[in-house]
Amino acid sequence: MHPADHALIVIDVQNDFCPGGALAVAGGDAIIARINALMTKFPVRVLTQDWHPADHSSFAANHPGAAPFSMIQMPYGPQVLWPAHCVQGTAGAAFHGALATDPADLVIRKGFRSAIDSYSAFFENDHQTPTGLEGYLRTRGVTALTLVGLATDFCVAYSAIDAARLGFRVTVLEGACRAIDLNGSLAEARGKMRAAGVVLDA
Q: Which end of the chain has fewer CB atoms surrounding its CB within 10 Å, N or C?
């Protein structure tokens, strides 16, 4: 068992990010058994859940003529336009059925503001609007985090970098993550995580 100040953060293990989903990550469901085993080893366990309204500005379908995975400029910076995914209340937004959700101390939803995307578990993509997760972890006495989940190069990496910036000791277990790898995004994300002081482990 990890010490009391160590939390497991499980990022977005939802149906739409698993095989068959609207934004499927290859092998996304292959990490679930390991994540379930990790749940028993941490005193604090948090699940994050992408939770978008149907009119979310990051959906290509809400930009006439725009192709999925194209880029646009938003007030907060460049934004990938995604296929519609993890729409509030849909089966795609639900946690994968094999994920052990009962051990979770907290489920934190993100991406519910239609005008801004939210990859990180800590901040929306303006890097300023907090989700409240930092405050929860501080009041629980957490100083170290281990991150797992989907996808390595987007929501996991953004969460890990923000956590390191906030002063947490951060480890990403790459074997319990899977990546989208959009135009080299995995290598770029790994470089940024290392530069931020995140430990990449197997």
A: C
